[in-house]
Design goal:
This protein is α+β, with helices and mostly antiparallel strands and 141 residues long. The protein contains 4 helices and 5 strands; from the N terminus they run ββαβαβαβα.
């Protein structure tokens, strides 16, 4: 999965995940991508810096929410927690373990952990199915 920074014609910036660059292009062409702030379908990729782990704590991201957003966030948190409760944590060995399970070298089971962007791209190219689990500010220490 690839995370793109996007911007609409009204300069609202937001992010979205896609399987590939072609997936973004296809969804855009079909009108499936719209700005969450204004609903505009005139959306382009914005310039974005690569995500680099510096070991320093990340800045907090603020989100002003109404009732529907609070409910959706609570559902996402519950889903992420349920996934974690019913899967084995494999840390930075996620790509290696996911590949072993996919190719039948390891018993099938749910796992979660960390993967670099390069590892995620490689897994997707190999046909390994996976999804990012959202991380919330209160999940971090």
């Amino acid at each position: 999965m690839i995370r793109f920074s996007l911007i609409c014609e009204h300069e609202h910036e937001f992010e979205a995940w896609f399987r590939s660059n072609d997936d973004f292009d296809t969804q855009k062409r079909r009108g499936f991508i719209d700005c969450p702030a204004c609903g505009s379908h005139k959306v382009e990729k914005a310039l974005m810096a690569p995500a680099v782990s510096t070991g320093r704590s990340q800045e907090k991201i603020a989100l002003a929410m109404g009732g529907a957003q609070k409910q959706a966030l609570a559902q996402l948190k519950a889903l992420a927690e349920k996934v974690r409760e019913n899967a084995d944590y494999v840390g930075d060995k996620f790509a290696e373990e996911a590949r072993k399970i996919h190719f039948g070298e390891s018993d099938p089971r749910g796992i979660y952990g960390e993967a670099t962007l390069e590892e995620a791209k490689s897994l997707a190219e190999d046909g390994v199915e996976f999804l990012p689990i959202p991380s919330f500010p209160d999940d971090r220490n």
